[in-house]
Specification:
This protein is an alpha/beta fold and about 210 residues long. It has one domain: Rossmann fold, CATH 3.40.50.10420. About 35% of the residues lie in helices and about 20% in strands. The protein has a five-stranded parallel sheet with strand order 1-11-6-3-2, with helices on both faces. It has a four-stranded mixed sheet with strand order 7-4-5-8. It starts with a helix and ends with a strand.
């Protein structure tokens, strides 16, 4: 009479023999990694951005974008607008009151910047330390406003990284970051908290015309 172990092994072998060999299909390594994107990258970006809690406004030009931002500032009673970017300052002057020195930075509620590129697949924004706004503005403000244009749209993240490499021609910025929606965490008791490690609101103005 066999041991209990031998009887168990025998039953397992009998069950295996009865079931027969299990065949596994060979993966199709030629199939695309990602699902196909919307042919309109602006629409794809908007959909993905809004899924992660970001806000999207499409405009024809940066002048129209500034006008819409004016209305939002008035309606929401936002205060302490900050902008360090010389190019953007030209469009804001006389329309939106803003600060740009260290004292204004410490009191900032709304930070206004540009970006490097927009990643449609993720609804994400690529920024770098080489931009006029530097490193800290992307994470310090309560409300982060980004002005971008359609020529900055890319399909996937690897395309955006490649474009940054081409833009800086081997002299990459010391910091390249990906912003995907407002800052959030659920580390404490699995409760979602917005704005824990950065802005709690992300607003993207996408202009058709470059600026």
């Amino acid at each position: 009479m066999g041991t209990a172990r031998e009887e168990i092994v025998a039953r397992l072998k009998a069950a295996q023999d009865k079931r027969g060999e299990v065949g596994l299909e060979k993966p199709d390594f030629t199939s695309p990694v990602y699902l196909p994107l919307n042919a309109n990258l602006a629409e794809e970006f908007q959909q993905k951005l809004e899924l992660v809690g970001g806000k999207f406004i499409a405009t024809e030009s940066i002048d129209e974008a500034v006008q819409k931002l004016q209305e939002m500032i008035r309606e929401n009673q936002w205060n302490n607008i900050f902008c360090k970017d010389d190019m953007l300052q030209k469009y804001l002057l006389g329309k939106i009151e803003f600060g740009s020195d260290d004292q204004a930075f410490e009191q900032m509620q709304v930070g206004i910047t540009r970006c490097e590129f927009l990643v449609a697949h993720l609804g994400a924004v690529l920024v770098s330390s080489a931009q006029a706004s530097g490193r800290r503005l992307n994470v310090f403000s309560e409300i982060h406003v980004i002005f971008a244009h359609e020529e900055q749209l890319t399909d996937y993240l690897e395309s955006g990284i490649q474009k940054i490499k081409e833009k800086y021609e081997g002299n990459l910025p010391s910091l390249i970051s990906v912003i995907t929606g407002p800052s959030r965490t659920a580390d404490i008791e699995k409760t979602l908290v917005m704005g824990m490690h950065g802005p709690k609101s992300l607003l993207i103005f996408l202009c058709k015309k470059p600026f």
